[in-house]
Structures are given as C-alpha cells and as structure tokens.
Amino acid sequence: MTARPSRHAALTLVLLAALAAGCSGTTGSEKNGQSADSSAAADRARSYMQAVVADDWHTACSRMAAARRTACHERHPAPETPEPDGPEIGPVLLDRPPVRVPATSRHPAGWGVITTHTVTWPGERTRTSYTALRMTEADGSWWVEQREDVSDSDLTRSADPAASALGRKAA
C-alpha cells in the first residue's frame, strides 16, 4: 500500500516552494529583471521626450539635470508656436529596457534609455526617430543628463545602442 501525503503536508510543501521562490535573489523592487530605479529613470526619460516633441520646453527643461537646466531655459525662453503645417508626431515609446551606461569625461554614469517616436510631414513618408537619454539620479529624482540621436549604425552594429550613442565623442 502506498502512503498518500496528507492535505496538510501537501499545503506545507506548496508554502515552502512559494517561500523559496520569494528568496531567489531578486528584490521586491525588481520586476521582469528591471529595478525600480531603471523603471523610474525610463518613465522620466519618456516624459521628457513627450515634452520635447510637443515643444513644451518649460516642462522639458525642468526635467534636465541641474547643471544643464539653466542653459535649456535660456535657449527656449518662450513657448513655441505650433506650426500649422507641421508634422504629425506619434507617441513617445520606450524602444528597449534601460541599460547601465558608464561615465565619460563629460557625463556621470547612469541609465541609458532609448525612446522612439514617429514623425510624418505632410506628403512625406513616416520616419522613426530614436533618441538616447542618459538619466542620472539626484535628490531622489531622475534627470536628463545627456541627449543624443541614435544612428542606424548604433542600432545595427552595436550590442548596446544606448551606450554607443551616449559614448560618442562630441563633434
């Protein structure tokens, strides 16, 4: 005669398995391999780019790192007047998960975030724009430290397009 485990024993095994899974080395602040920091940095990057494509420079500049904020406000002192025959711009999306990017001689280490949006001028083909943003943390928030266009070669020839675009030497 084969002994069957009792309901209590089976429930105990399920509970132990669940506890063991909860102790697998990931923290509650991680989901799908992403930390809360990378998710917060990505959300802030996306909101910055949404403001940029909407020509809302007051909002965009206010999302920049403190050292870059004043220069941004000086370049964009007044709200932009929308072009009546301007392009149709699609929503800003995250192209891929954020990645850690190393410090350069001009920028600190942070999270590299690639955003994408479409631009369609009247009578033209729709183009997709990719932008890499270096996000750094200060005072409990994430700020745009650097913004670079992502080239086709960054996307096709680099294992890490964000690091490639953000590590490029300034011309």
List the helices and strands and how they pair.
Layout lengths: L6 H16 L13 H18 L3 H6 L3 H10 L12 E2 L3 E2 L4 E3 L8 E11 L6 E12 L2 E9 L2 H6 L3 H7 L4
Antiparallel strand pairs: 1-4, 2-4, 3-4, 4-5, 5-6
Keywords:
about 170 residues; disordered N terminus
Care to describe what's here?
With 171 residues, the protein is of the alpha+beta class. The protein has six helices and six strands, in the order ααααββββββαα. Strands 1, 2, 3, 4, 5 and 6 form a six-stranded antiparallel beta sheet that branches. It starts with 6 loop residues before the first helix and ends with a helix. The N terminus is likely disordered.
Structural class determined from secondary elements: alpha+beta
Distance between the termini: 81 Å
Count of beta strands: 6
- Poorly predicted regions: 1-33
How big is the Rg? 22 Å
Q: Indicate the proportion of strand residues.
A: 15-25%
Helical segment tally?
6
Helix content: 25-40%
Q: Main beta sheet: strand number and arrangement?
A: 6 strands, antiparallel
Overall, the morphology is globular
